[in-house]
């Protein structure tokens, strides 16, 4: 029998995923093939499936929080070994020679290609990946629990690094949207001794209790006023109308970091919300150095992810649960 790849594939933006069986691909030069153990379900996957991200490949297999074992090596790959456990993130390829790459800002590369958007991703039994963009992972951990670290964890970490670089006086941190990324970052903030204030959808008491369990000193609706003025606010909810609210919540000299790859339009707001040397920043993807630093930090803390497992064939259900806000923590697909 010819080896096959099982996957959940998107053929049309805005449509559901369909189960497919494809020939098992062989890795080219510099590539590896992975037998996938688990793949996290990220909000960016929703943006891909719902057609909110421009460009990309069709048909596409989504998924970019991939944990798997090296199943085959392409020519020239000497950094990984057959059977080794690795993780594959959103950033799957950069050119390596443009000005952004040479500055160490490969996340801004104009020729970047992204896993599950341009490159076939992890909602599958197997995938191909550029060996340079595979992170070695601990063998002893639960693969499904590692999966959310590959994007939710990395984006949360990069958002926090940007906030922390803005000012050394970062004691009170607000997080808007308390899901997979937030519950990971909350553990980093608690380990560093920061104060966390969580903002959720109005009436979402389950998410507020989830935030309190993860160390938030206060949790309320995004329409509420925090009991303390914030030094920084990080937005994981892709809702543009939260930007003015977050600016109003931070002190003069504070920063608001938008941690998503897509966001609804930001409404106009008075200059007074930005005045006082407040800063508004976005986060674009990640770098491999972010991955090295964060995965090392996550192991030392250690970060524990809360997940809900779904069989691969239930990918549509997992995406819908995420879309409707029915998840606490992260959804993970198991082939």
Structure description:
- The chain has helices spanning 43-49, 99-102, 143-146, 152-166, 180-192, 205-213, 242-249, 288-300, 315-323, and strands at 4-9, 18-23, 31-41, 65-73, 85-88, 91-93, 113-114, 126-130, 135-136, 172-176, 195-200, 218-221, 230-235, 250-258, 279-282, 307-311, 330-334.
- It has 2 domains: 4-150 and 305-334, Medium-chain alcohol dehydrogenases, catalytic domain (Quinone Oxidoreductase, Chain A, domain 1, Alpha-Beta Complex); 153-282, NAD(P)-binding Rossmann-like Domain (Rossmann fold, 3-Layer(aba) Sandwich), CATH 3.40.50.720.
- The relative contact order is 0.16.
- It is of the alpha/beta class and 335 residues long.
CATH superfamily of the largest domain: Medium-chain alcohol dehydrogenases, catalytic domain
The number of domains is 2
CATH topology value of the largest domain = Quinone Oxidoreductase, Chain A, domain 1
Number of helices: 9
Structural class: alpha/beta
Sum up the overall morphology in one term.
globular
Mean pLDDT: 95
Low-confidence stretches: none
Percent helix: 10-25%
Distance between the termini: 20 Å
Q: What's the total number of strands?
A: 17
The helix/strand order is EEEHEEEHEEEHHEHEHEEHEEHEHE
Quote the beta fraction.
25-35%
Provide the CATH top-level class of the largest domain: Alpha Beta
CATH architecture of the largest domain: Alpha-Beta Complex
- What Rg is obtained from the alpha carbons, in whole angstroms? 20 Å
Question: Largest sheet, if any?
Answer: 7 strands, mixed
């Amino acid at each position: 029998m010819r080896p096959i790849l099982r996957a959940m594939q998107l053929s049309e933006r805005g449509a559901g995923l369909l189960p497919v069986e494809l020939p098992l691909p062989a890795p080219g030069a510099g590539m590896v093939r992975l037998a996938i153990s688990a793949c996290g379900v990220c909000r960016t996957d929703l943006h891909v499936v719902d057609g909110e991200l421009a460009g990309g490949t069709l048909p596409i297999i989504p998924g970019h929080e991939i944990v798997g074992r090296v199943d085959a090596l392409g020519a020239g790959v000497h950094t990984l070994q057959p059977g080794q456990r690795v993780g594959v993130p959103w950033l799957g390829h950069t050119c390596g020679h443009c000005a952004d790459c040479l500055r160490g800002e490969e996340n801004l590369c104009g020729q970047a290609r992204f896993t599950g958007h341009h490159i076939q991703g992890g909602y599958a039994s197997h995938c191909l990946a550029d060996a340079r963009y595979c992170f070695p992972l601990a063998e002893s951990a639960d693969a499904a629990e590692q999966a959310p670290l590959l994007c939710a964890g990395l984006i949360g970490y990069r958002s926090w690094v940007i906030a922390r670089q803005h000012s050394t006086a970062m004691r009170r941190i607000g997080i808007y949207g308390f899901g997979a990324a937030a519950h990971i970052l909350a553990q980093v903030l608690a380990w560093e001794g920061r104060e966390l204030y969580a903002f959720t959808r109005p009436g979402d008491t389950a998410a507020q209790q989830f935030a309190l369990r993860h160390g938030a000193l206060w949790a309320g609706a995004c329409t509420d006023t925090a009991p303390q003025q914030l030094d920084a606010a990080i937005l994981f909810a892709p809702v543009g109308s939260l930007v003015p609210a977050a600016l109003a919540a931070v002190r003069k000299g504070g920063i608001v970091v938008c941690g998503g790859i897509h966001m609804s339009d930001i409404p106009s707001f008075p200059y007074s919300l930005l005045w006082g040397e407040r800063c508004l920043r976005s986060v674009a993807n990640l770098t491999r150095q972010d991955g090295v630093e964060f995965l090392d930090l996550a192991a030392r803390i250690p970060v524990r992810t809360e997940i809900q497992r779904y069989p691969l064939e239930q990918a549509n259900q997992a995406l819908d649960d995420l879309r409707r806000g029915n998840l606490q923590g992260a959804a993970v697909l198991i082939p």
